[in-house]
C-alpha cells in the first residue's frame, strides 16, 4: 500500500501511530471489547470508498456514481444474512450505540417505555441509563442480577415487565460472564407485547462460532458492534429476524428509515466494505475454531485465577470475559488496572453487581481473551498471564509491577499481531 505517504506528509500522526503499534506489540490487550483486525479489514477500511457520498440505500441513492458502492453494500448485507441466518440487515450504523439508537427510533416514540439490564449489573449505557439518550428521551426501567448468585433472575425480569409494561426489552450486556436464556425472554416479551431486542455487541463472534446460544429463533431485532469478538472494523449493525417480521411486518422499513434519514447522513462505505470483509472472514471454518479457543482460554484463565484465590463474579465464565471482585485482595479496580498496565497487561476497572464502591474506584476488573487469542495464545499462555496478574496484585507495588513487564514483553513478542 501507499504506506510512506503518511510518514512523509504528517510525521506527527505517523509517529503517534507507530508508538501505538509498539505499545500493542509489547503488551497484552485484555479488555474484552477489543480485538486485532486482519490486514484485509484494515486495507478495506483505509480505501478510496471513504470519499464517496451515498445517502440512501442501494438502488435508491440521493447521489450519482454509486454503482460500485451499491455492490459493496449489497454484498455486505447478503453476507450478514447468511452469517447470522436472518432475513434483513441494515449495515449502515456507524457504531454500536447508533445501531441501538435506530432501534429506539424505529420502535418507540419519545417517552415510551423500555426495559434493559442495569448498567451496574453488566448492562450497557444505551439500554436506558439516565445519562444516555436512551434514559433521557425514553422512560426506562431495569432488571438486574440476583444479589447472591449474580445471575439474571428471570422471575424478577418477568415481574418488572408485568409492572412496567415496556414496549421494548433489551437483552445483552458488556460485563455479564454468562449466557442468556433467550427463550424465557421471548415469553416475557410476548406476555407484555414488547419488541424483544438482543444486543450481541460483545458475543456476536461467539454466536457465529457456535459457542454461545443464538438469539435468532427467539428475538425480533438484533444489534451488534462489528469490532469486538466479531473482529471487524469499528462499526455497528441492525438485523431483523423472521420473528420480528411476524410481529411487525413494517419493522425492517422502520429500521431503514430510522438509520437514514432519521439519524445518519451519508453511510461510511469504506467501513461497510471492511464489515463485509469481516463477515467473509467470520464465515470461514478458522473463525469457528477461533471462537471456541476464545472461550477455552477464558475458562482456563478464570480457573487459574480462582486457584490463586481470586473471587470471580458468578464463579467463572461461559464466554470471553470474566469479572473479578478484588475486595478479598484489598485492592480497588482502578489500582489494579494501573498496576497491571505497568506490567504490560491492559484491562479495565469495572463495577461489580451491587458495588459498594464509587464508579471511579470500583471493586472489580474485567478481563477478556478475544485479542490475545487472535495473537494465537492458548491455555498454556493463560496460565502465565494468571501468574503475572496474581503477582502484580499481591505485590501491590509499582516497581515490582514494572519488573514483570519483561516477562509480558517476551510473551507478547512470541505471538505477533497478524
Ligand atoms: C460496546 C457495546 C455497545 C456500543 O458500541 P459502541 O460501538 O461503543 O457505540 C452497545 N451495546 C453493548 C452491549 C456493548 O457492549
Write a short abstract of this structure:
The chain is of the alpha/beta class. It has helices at residues 4-9, 11-26, 39-45, 67-84, 96-107, 133-136, 154-164, 182-192, 204-208, 242-247, 251-263, 269-282, 285-307, 333-343, 370-374, 379-395, 398-414, and strands spanning 28-29, 56-57, 60-61, 88-90, 113-117, 139-143, 168-171, 195-199, 221-225, 236-240, 311-312, 321-325, 345-346, 348-350, 364-368.
Folded structure, characterized:
The protein has 418 residues and is an alpha/beta fold. It folds into two domains: 43-282, 3-Layer(aba) Sandwich (Aspartate Aminotransferase, domain 2), CATH 3.40.640; 288-414, Alpha-Beta Complex (Aspartate Aminotransferase, domain 1), CATH 3.90.1150.10. 47% of the residues lie in helices and 13% in strands. The chain has 17 helices and 15 strands. It has helices at 4-9, 11-26, 39-45, 67-84, 96-107, 133-136, 154-164, 182-192, 204-208, 242-247, 251-263, 269-282, 285-307, 333-343, 370-374, 379-395, 398-414, and strands spanning 28-29, 56-57, 60-61, 88-90, 113-117, 139-143, 168-171, 195-199, 221-225, 236-240, 311-312, 321-325, 345-346, 348-350, 364-368. The strands form four sheets. It has a seven-stranded mixed beta sheet with strand order 4-10-9-8-7-5-6, sandwiched between helices. Strands 11-12-15-14 form a four-stranded antiparallel beta sheet. It has a two-stranded parallel sheet with strand order 1-13. Strand 5 (113-117), helix 6 and strand 6 form a beta-alpha-beta unit. Helix 3 (39-45) runs antiparallel to helix 12 (269-282), helix 7 runs parallel beside helix 8 (182-192) and helix 13 (285-307) runs parallel beside helix 16. The longest helix has 23 residues, at 285-307. It is globular and about 60 Å long.
